[in-house]
Structure formats: structure tokens, C-alpha cells
Amino acid sequence: MSGILEHGTRRTILTTLEASPGLTVGQVAGTLGIHYKTALHHARRLAEAGHLVLRRDGHHARCYLPGVRAPPPAPARALQALHALAQGARTPAELARALGVPRGTAGSLLRRLERASLAVRTQDGWRAAAPEAFTAGAPVGGAWTAASSAR
Question: Full-prediction pTM beyond 0.90?
Fold first, then answer.
């Protein structure tokens, strides 16, 4: 056993991630009942030694064992925008109201979605390129389902 793995907390972190890959450092800390900074310290040491891979996911660091393929993170705001487009938002102003963001932010988001071929500008306004994927009941990012669209 390498010296890095002689620490019990580090072995426990690896065991936890075998059962639940992709936990954030905060979730690992909560699971183990240790402080976040303690979990982060040990995760960084494990990553430096090649026993763990840390991937940024927004403001969080997700932990994976080497060789475990992490799903690409889906930007939450982009998913919300596509859902709003599928529900009828057609202009940057309507999208801004739906997302609770400034109109300029909504316009920038629409242009990025267009470059990614996820949104299309038509004579009637913007629409999702594949609106059926974002209608009620479709599992989109785990957050936008029939229950959330009914609110």
C-alpha cells in the first residue's frame, strides 16, 4: 500500500467513491462526517497521487476514481432556457422574465444556444431546436420534469 493510502480517511474516501462516483467534495465530507476542508485536503492529496480525479462542476469539485467516465455537466441555465423556449418564450425579454435574468444575459444565452445548434431564430422569434426533448415529463438534467414545469 502506498504511503498516501495509509491514512484511514483517504481509504474511506476511495471506498465511498467506489459506491457513489461523482460526489462533490462537500457530499463526501457530509457522508463521512468530516469538515469540508478536511475532505478537500485529502481529495487533493489523492488526486496528486493519481488515486482520484477532481473535476470542476460549476462551483463544486466532483470526485471520480481514475478510469470512471464522468458525464459531461449540463449547464443548468442553458437547460432552463431550452425548457422556457419549449414552453413558449420567443424573445430575449420573455426568456429573461422566465429565467429571472437581465435581458442582455438572455440574449447572450440565446446566441450561445444557437451556435451549439440547440436554438433556432425564426421569423416568429426563438425556439428550441428539438422542443420535444424539453416538454413536460422529459428528464432534462434531473431538474426539469413534469413536476417542475407545472409550477
Answer: no
